Structures are given as structure tokens and as C-alpha cells.
Amino acid sequence: MNSVVTCAIIRKMAKITNLANKIEKQLPAELVNFMQVAGRVATSQGQNLYLVGGVVRDLLLGRTNFDLDLVVEGNAIELAQQLAEINQGKIVTYPQFNTAKLQWSQWSVDLATARSETYTKPGALPRVKSSSIESDLSRRDFTINTMAIYLSPSRYGELIDMYGGRNDLKHKLVRILHEKSFIDDATRIWRSLRYEQRLNFQLGKNTLKLLKRDIPMLDTISGDRIRYELECILQEERPEKVLRRAEELNVLQRLHPALKGNGWLAEKFEQARQLSSPNPPPVGLYLALLAYPLTDEENERLISRLRLPKSLAQALRDSISLKTKLQPLANPKLTPSSIYHLLHGYSSPAIITNSLASDSPVARQHIHLFLNKLRYVKPALTGNDLKRMSITPGPQIKEILQRLHEARLDGKVTSKQGEKELVKEWLG
Known about the structure:
It is a single chain. The chain is an alpha+beta fold. The chain folds into 4 domains: 1-170, Beta Polymerase, domain 2 (2-Layer Sandwich); 172-308, Orthogonal Bundle (cca-adding enzyme, domain 2), CATH 1.10.3090.10; 325-376, no CATH class; 383-427, no CATH class. Helix content is 54%, strand content 11%. It has helices spanning 3-13, 20-26, 29-44, 54-61, 76-87, 133-138, 165-170, 181-184, 187-199, 205-214, 223-234, 239-248, 263-276, 283-291, 296-306, 310-322, 326-329, 336-343, 348-357, 361-372, 383-388, 395-409, 416-427; strands spanning 48-52, 68-73, 90-94, 99-104, 107-113, 115-118, 127-130, 148-150, 159-160, 173-174, 202-203. The strands form 3 sheets. Strands 3-4-5-2-1-8-9 form a 7-stranded mixed sheet. Helix 3 packs across helix 5 and helix 14 (283-291) packs across helix 19 (348-357). The protein is elongated, with a radius of gyration of 28 Å.
């Protein structure tokens, strides 16, 4: 059954909802104009264009979302190229998926060709082929993300809701589309918890039952894809809510049995936000706090499972290693140079993680001194300066520079001239 016939049936079965007014009120005028132009261009090519997914959901919820996803029953790359000429924008194309990203001014829009998907085995990436808007919507994760809006001029603003997504929004439910949804793609387990907590919704009764049944399917998903879902969670406004729910449902333990989404984590995440304000904390800081209770061996297993890139893996390793330095850092008699030597060489997320995790006010004070001042202290004299003072090149220069650095840290010298006099004194 073709797209026009199917949608005609849908129109007869339900009262037509038109969201043109919502679009105009909630989206910036430049984006509204772009969609209207895009709809006209697609129609002139004999193609139908739709606004789909999360932005439709958020329009109905009255939430801000300017990330436009457009689906065309035709060729997304060709349409993107035409729109780029009109908008004087730039496009990045992905021919293997027949998708494109169009950017102009401060705006970015994703365009995709309507497609269907089949899964050769659980956890595998789907095989895709061009199809209709109905097939495209049927492959999506949750009913609240299956809605679309016509952008063609003759039906501009009309809502397509084949799976009761609007009703689920009304009843605050997150529901999958079919019983094999989590089996086909178990990353949907993590996404369901993310949407549930972000929107303050609940998992549908059957969806919750199937989620619990299919938790073992998470083992079919590659570390890269699991890491992506975890990073998306850590970019949420309150990621601890998702992690607490994940622990409650035994999803978090699938990453590692020792991970906790408890009150301690929620407290530390909140402190991290206060420290980073007005910007959100970096993912590396959140991740290091999540992994903080792990042993070295447990930490390595988590790093391996998530296939963490070098910088994130280093942040986790440094965080665990630095725990052993918290006791000496709690010594109130530590000199600034001693503080520097205890903390130098560790990544910033690891140092901040240990500051947040420490129960010692003295250790926290020392860490703050390092982060705000000590790590920036350097001697004024260089190796070339020392050579000009007739010091023979070699190990002696390195030793003198190190002693000058410590003198600077401890406030024993405060100027370049003072450093010169100190070196002369050392040389006798």
C-alpha cells in the first residue's frame, strides 16, 4: 500500500490534527521558513517531506527543541543539495545511508531518505533500504518518537500518528512498538530509561516486562554503541536519575556488577554541576565519579567493555590511582611543593573527582590550591639562562631548574633576579 493511500486511511480513521500554529509559535521564524521552503522544493520534485521524531514529540509537549530531523520519500542528498543552494549553506553527505546534514547560519538540519530496516541477528546494525514514511516510522524505538508532520504545502502541519504516540504523551508512557524491539536493538533499553527520566514518564507495563526479560541482550551490543548511550545519558540534565533507575532494574549492573546509582553518586553529580556552572560537567568527570568505587581490576574491565578512548580511559585510571594519595594530601603541614608533586601528572577530571570524593577538608583545600594556582607556577629562569650563567649543560641544569620550581612553589623566591641570586648561592 503506497504512502498516499495509507495516510488517506489514517485521516478517515481519526480527526486530523494540524500543528502549523504550534510550529509557528514554538520554533524560530528562520526554521519555520526553511521547512516551508523545503516542503515546496520536495513537492516540486514529486516527493513528500516530513518533520519527524523528537522535535514532533517536543512540539506536543511544549518543550524547546530546535534539532530538526526531516525525512523525504525520495532522495535526501539531492534535496539537501538543492536546499543548500537556496540557503547558501554547507552540507555533509553520507551516501552509504543516503542522509545529509545541512548547516547555515547557526542552524543545523538532518535530512534522511525514508527507509525500512531488517536485523540479521540481535544486536547487529540494521540493513536499510529506501521505503515509505510508514516503514520509516515503524522502525523507530518508542511510540512517542514515531510521529511525523507533513511539510508539503497542501497538507502542511498535519500530524501522522500511527502508533498512538500522542495518547502515550498524554498518559506519560514510554512504550516500544513490538515484542522484539529490545531483542533487535538492546540499546533501546538504555534509551527507554533516558526518556522515562528526562520526561518524568513511566515505562508501559508490557514494555517494562519485556525490558526485564531482554536485559541479557545488552551483551549482544558492541562497547562503542553502549558507550554512546552512556555518554548521551551523562549529557542529560540529571543523569543520576537514569543511573538510579538503571540500577533498580539491574541494567547498570550489566555494565559492571560493582557500579552503583545510589545517593552518594547523586550527591557528587550535583556537586560537580555546581563546580562546573554555568557549563555542564564534562562527560569524563561524570564517568570518573561513576567508576570511582571500583578497584583497579574492575576499572580495567569497565574500560575494556566500553572501549573507552584514551583520554577517558586515562581519567578513570588516574581517578582510581589518585585515591591512594588522599591520605597524605590530608596532612595540614604539607608544603606547596609537596602538594604539587602528589598531584602533578594526573588528569584534571581525576583530580576534581578525588576532590569531590574526599571526606577531608584539608585534602580538598590542597587540591583546590593545586588546581587554581600551583599547577601554573613555573620558574622564570630557563636552561638557556643558566647556560649564560656559565653552568655546564647536563644533569646539573635539570636539577637546578627543579629546585627553582620548588622554591617558586614554596614562595622562597618571587622574581627572576631572586632566582639568579639563589642559583649563585647554591653554586657557592
